[in-house]
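Colleagues,

Please find the record for the two-part complex below.
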Amino acid sequence: MAKTKVTLKWNGSLKHFAEGSLVDANTAKTLGSTVVTMMNEAISKGLSPVADWGRFAKYAAQRNVTAKGKAGKTQRRKYYPFNIKPLNPVNLKVSGAFLNTIKFQRTAKNGIEVGHLNPDDKTEALFEAHNEGLNKYVPQRKYLPNKKGELFIVSIMRAIRNVYSQRIKSIINSNR
Amino acid sequence: MGSFITEQILMAIGDLSSPISGRSWPKLSKAYAKQKAADGYNPVADLDVSGQLLGSLDYKPTADGIEVGIYGSAAPKADGHNNFSGESKIPTRRFLPSEGENFKQTIKTEIEKIVNDVVAESLDVSRKDFAEIETQDELWSVLKSLMPDFSRAEIVDSISRNPQLAGLLDEFNLLRWLRPKSR
């Protein structure tokens, strides 16, 4: 089964300086909330948070169903709430319950995990459809870089780097 | 840098604001908003109907930097919104800076950091540059010689954002000397 979460940790060694304390509870919280917030922000705008994926594939044309007898007039399919779900942006959201399961937690090894931490069956099915492209009726719309070599978009990677930077500078400026 | 800039432009457009001024854009006219909603689209000024315009936002490296823009057949649409030609009849919703303009401060600041980080990552440094250092002054002398165009704050920033450089200084227990001297 594909990984539903990714691990982020400082990519280096700081043995004298902060080993074991670089990602303290506060930093983990800042890092995690930054990543989750920015993921949701990108998704809400139809932009994949995964590098090199760009904007999400548009909803299929069959979302616009020609009403009987009125050529060219469009009407949304009945299972998409009318006036709540426009055709754009493609934001993986109807009620918001699925995206609300994207969370973070601190790990024992100086980092955090981000993603669907304990997905139920429904969340897993949606994850496999959107992120993994395993549902033939749904275009793949990747939002979690869970494969080797995949990264978040540059804006998120820069934000991660800045959180670590702030932590290191605060340790430099402390009395340690 | 090109990826960062295009992402930030798309994020700002999604916020219905200019990545240059930071201010919200003029809203759609009531008539057009109604039309957009009737066609199933978001009735806001998100520059997104077919997806062609935003899908054509891209960047290219140039001799002295990068060029960001809308390429191909969507270019006239881009001018409709940015009005560089001065001939557009629709409200200006600028998402590309014209000559003399710059991106908003948050984007500009991060671009400057990216440039500094690239400089720091390209430094030819090794253990021998730091192995003999015994005082804080010696450390700063070496760092200033490696990054002569950086202020002290920028040097600390760049090191704190560079795991390899930070690890190299840490190996000789030198990171503690990046702290400003006590008065």
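The first strand of chain B starts at residue 57 and ends at 62.

Comments are welcome before we finalize the supplementary table.
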